[in-house]
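Build the 3D complex.
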Amino acid sequence: MANIEKDEVSGVDTTGHEWDGIKELDTPMPRWWLWTFYATIVWAIGYWVLMPAWPLVSEHTKGMLGYSSRGNLEQELSAAEAAQADKVAALLATEITEVKDNADLYQFALAGGRSNFAVNCSQCHGSGAQGGPGFPNLNDDDWLWGGSIEQIYQTVQFGIRSDHEDTRIGNMPAFQTDEILERGQILDVAEYVLSLSQEGRDMDAAGRGKEVFAAECSSCHGDDAKGNTELGAPNLTDAIWFYGGDKDTIVRTISKGRANVMPAWTDRLDDAVIRQISLYVHSLGGGE
Amino acid sequence: MNQSSVETVDVKAVNKKENRNLFEKREKIQPKRATGTFRRLKWIIMGITLAIYYVTPWIRWDRGAGAPDQAVLLDIEHRRFYFFFIEIWPQEVYYVTGILIVAAISLFLVTALFGRAWCGYSCPQTVWTDLFIFVERAVEGDRNARLKLDKAPMSVGKFSKRLVKHVIWIVIGLLTGGAWVFYFADAPTLLQDLLTADARPIAYSTIAVLTATTYTFGGFMREQVCTYMCPWPRIQGAMVDEETLTVTYHGNRGEPRGPHKKNESWEGRGHCIDCKQCVAVCPMGIDIRDGLQLECITCALCIDACDSVMDKIDLPRGLISYDTHEGSLEKAANKKLKVKFIRPRTLAYVGLLALVGGIMLYALLTRSVLDVNVIRDRNPLFVTLSDGHIRNGYTVKILNKIHETRRFVVTVEGLEGSEAWLQIEGPRHRQMIVPVPGDSLSSVKLFVSAPAEAVEDGSTDIVIVVKDLFNGETERQETSFKGPK
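Done.
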């Protein structure tokens, strides 16, 4: 049975248990520890009263302070919006071509453009706007639909081949599928197109292809094959290829046609955001 | 037991090893007032250190328009550290590291020479505890009166004394914390804000925390901070050697100790009359006659106490004195005391101090007021242009550390046939000039294009040069130009 003794040195009772002559002191909890513990209990009760705490069946107790993290976020967002209101108004009031003259406003537009691009555009164009096969690289100086700030703004607003009525449309016909050209003619044209930017191509085939090109392709791509931004017809003489510059891809493009879509953003994003994105894209290095 | 005009104090050295039971509650130490050379020295040092602490934030230093005119200012909000003529930006925090290294080595040097002089005289814990004990003594009286008051039952008199003491302590705490915040903001403005309750919550909470710590550390914890919380006494163990000056009781002269009656002969006995004055004045609760010990902060109050006793009984002073271990051995052998300040160890510390101090001084004197960072675009790594050229983008960050606008010209070296232009200027007007307002950072986007042949193996080293148009100060940043492999 327990044999509780008083320890002489400390004046504290033992637990009354003994193991091989070793007794244990029944030392009380340190006071500072206990008081801290009691303080946490008091704190917890205060917390239940003041802050959202207990889950109920369909909601939770709201607490007297009415705190909610969602409410905080809303507050912060509206505060941020209010803080930017002046700049947004200025951005809307300034001609898009003249924003660059106002260093502050331009910085604001680029910063907003960067983050809005990341949210809305990077899915197709890539986080660095570097694009990929079928998705144009926005860093370079080659533009399907024009690289001036107004043209970029127009493209972002209404898209390409989108469902918006003001969209711009340019179609690359499917010359083989629609039986406009023979397989051999298509190979010749591809050879011709490649010969415009590369040396050492088969010049016989290219010569035959040149005639086909003049008949079928030059109406959009131009007699010199340098493209036409009015129609979204790419320049075929430069080092940049939209879908890929190898012969197989070019043959495929001619045979099956191409009709990629850029969505219209005017109904989805604020005009200020579209302006920001346009200015940002224009600033990436290729803007004209 | 009738000693010649020297009172024997009934005192227990509570921190003496035999007296210190782990299970026992701490016994409050009630140090008796000491007078003498070292007490006076301590008052003077207390005055100087407190003055430095309180006055420093109020010293003004003109830095021109737009910059704070406070000599010492840790401007956390704007990320600047001002120290008289020195202005440090966050990326130059290695200066602080240097200062800490110098402080550490100085501490080692002082320790090797004079032992725990820092602990005994200038450590804030010592200074403030001293101040708190001074207040306690002024309000409640010296040791005996305080002991009596502790035992007395609560009464109006006792309560009012206690109240006055604690109020003064809290006021000292408030002033301590209150002075601290002035190092972090413009002092006159902050003082006004504090008084009109317009200052930021962080200022008030900092004052509150420091008031609380000052009050508890100085009023209640006192020597326990040194003994249990501070690592310095432990580090000290490794720093002290037999040539270090410490507070030493000369046992060879003092022993055998014992009470001494007037006119009794000193033949065959030691000079220590066991009056325990040295124990009574000790704020650390030790008996110095046990030898050097961890708790001793070498405040030398026991020297003062013992010296005044020696004067009264007409014996030479210095039964307890600053001495080295070596010195006390020599004294035992009746040799002359000589303290060897120049030793390999102290020489090594001085050498290190000179080296680090020299490096710091050199770094400060040659500190550049222009800092350039170049960040290469990684997404995309490079861009192929329609004419087959390769274009890379760089963000050039130019830091102007003086308080005037400067204009810099940016050029690119090391790339055959390259062209460069700033995004903001566009490819057609290439002035390549970046104005940077005073005390700020400008970030510009730089485009560089070059024929594909100029890039070998996918990467070529280039140098981006930023030059001050006015005084020609130049920073060169090496980076690379990437292209297809």
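Chain A touches chain B at residues 9-10, 12, 100, 103, 106, 126-130, 137, 139-142, 235, 238-240, 283, 285-286 (CB under 8 Å).
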